Amino acid sequence: MDLRRDVLLGGRLAMIRGGGRVLAWSGDPLLRLMYRPWSDRPDLLHRRLRDGPQPFASRSGVFVVATAQLCREVVRDRRYGVRTRVGGTPGGAVAGERDPLLEPVDLSILGLDPPDHTRLRRLVAPAFTPARIAAREDLVRTAAERLVDAAVAKQRFDLVADIAVPLPVAVIADVLGVPDADAATFAHWGQAVGAGLGGVRSLRALHRLERATGELRGLMSDLLAQRRRGRPDEAGGDLLDALAAAEIDDDEAVGLAVLLLLAGFETTSGLIGNAVVALLGSDTWPTLVDDPSTAAGVVEETLRFDPPVQFTARVPHEDVDLAGTPVPADSTVLALLGAAGRDPTVHTDPDVFDPSRTTADEHLAFSGGAHYCLGAPLARLEARVALEVLTDRAPALHRLPGAERRRSLLLSEYTRLPLATTAGA
Ligand code: HEM
Q: Ligand 1 pocket: which residues have CB below 6 Å?
């Protein structure tokens, strides 16, 4: 442990925490999204931000856009990147480096600008085309049936631990080519990392995160080395084969594999949980039970209504005019994807969960532009199949007390969701 580094980081953390709380008390709606009690009602803060002047210049130094139109514009605009012009973390303290507090995890392609982003994205994109993903439907269904049957047999279960987490882990492990034996370890470390993805709030959390990422990287590195020794099957093999065969350095290959694992399951498990909560909380569950072919619409409506990823950040690489406001190069602009999904100029009665609405798929839950979510077809497939199997096996599903939500500006998801059913009801 590096004591000097810890003292410096601890000091900065205390300043960030203290400053953030003061700004939240002073009424800054962006900071209020991070602190209780305000953070319990993100929808109210989103409305305030959407209805106010755009962009909102937070006193934390960040610009915020919250309407659907501006969020879409910002994520698609090629004048913006995800790093500062010298390659640093947006808003970070050290120019040209990854800031351990704001970006505690190597984000691989998510945190790269062209040409590195283009080069690495091209390498993995073929594994995620809609056709390659559709071909996995049987595998996803078999895994979902196994998990749902085991959960329903208990009659009382935790949707998150029993289904929503293990399903995406099994699927992404298969896409990557990770053996079953390692998949459980992945889930464990992956969840630890997921908890800190939106930035860390304490030194302890930072150390936990660094340990978890270190373990994950170690596992991936071993698997890649094994593949390289065994002559990877570049043409017909899995994604680890493709990475092992590619001419990229070890660090990049390991970073990419870890990102795919993390991006692939924290988010998808959030989507499955948020869908079930919205369905059971709005009396639309019986409609889905009667007609499971509406599951795809439920998934889109959940992505609009309560998206697992709530915002994304962009950095203009030149001075830009954003809806009439001059925004200097290297500023941080946050696009509130969650707020965009509730924009009343796009969706009628946006606060109502209505899977039959025709505008449901006009959301930004998967962002847009160069960083548009690579796993969108996979996430949609997994969530749809999970819902189809759940309605089939557990039509009398209902909630039990004890649900827990993650407290994070970035992720909206349940970490515990107790449910009960009557087997065969
Ligand atoms: C409901 C589930 C999911 C949600 C809500 C989601 C959301 C997102 C969002 C918002 C971004 C873009 C962030 C930005 O604009 O900077 C993104 C990027 C990404 N997602 Fe997903 N994601 C989901 C599932 C998945 C899955 C299953 C995978 C597959 C393994 C995946 C892999 C990725 C990757 C690799 C990127 C980075 C793309 C790039 O930077 O070019 N995601 N995701």
A: 75, 109-110, 121, 172, 259-260, 263-264, 267-268, 271, 307-309, 312, 365-367, 371, 373-375, 378-379
Same domain, 59 and 15: no
- Same structural domain for residues 48 and 24? no
Axis crossing angle, helix 166-176 with helix 180-196, rounded to the nearest 10: 120
308 in the same domain as 173: yes
Same domain assignment for residues 122 and 254: yes
Average pLDDT, integer, range 282-296: 96
- Domain assignment present for residue 416? The answer is yes
The pLDDT score that the predictor gives to residue 231 is: 64
- Give residue 323's domain range: 41-92+112-420
| Residue 379 Cα: closest atom of ligand 1 | 27
If we measure between CA atoms, which residue out of 222, 247, 227 comes closest to residue 237? 227
Q: What is the pLDDT of residue 129?
A: 92
Q: Is 2 left (phi over 0), alpha (psi -120 to 50) or beta?
A: beta
Q: Are residues 146 and 186 in the same domain?
A: yes
pLDDT above 60: residue 424: no
Give distance in angstroms: CA of 374 to centre of ligand 1: 6
- Are 27 and 60 found together in one domain? no
Which pTM does this prediction carry?
0.93
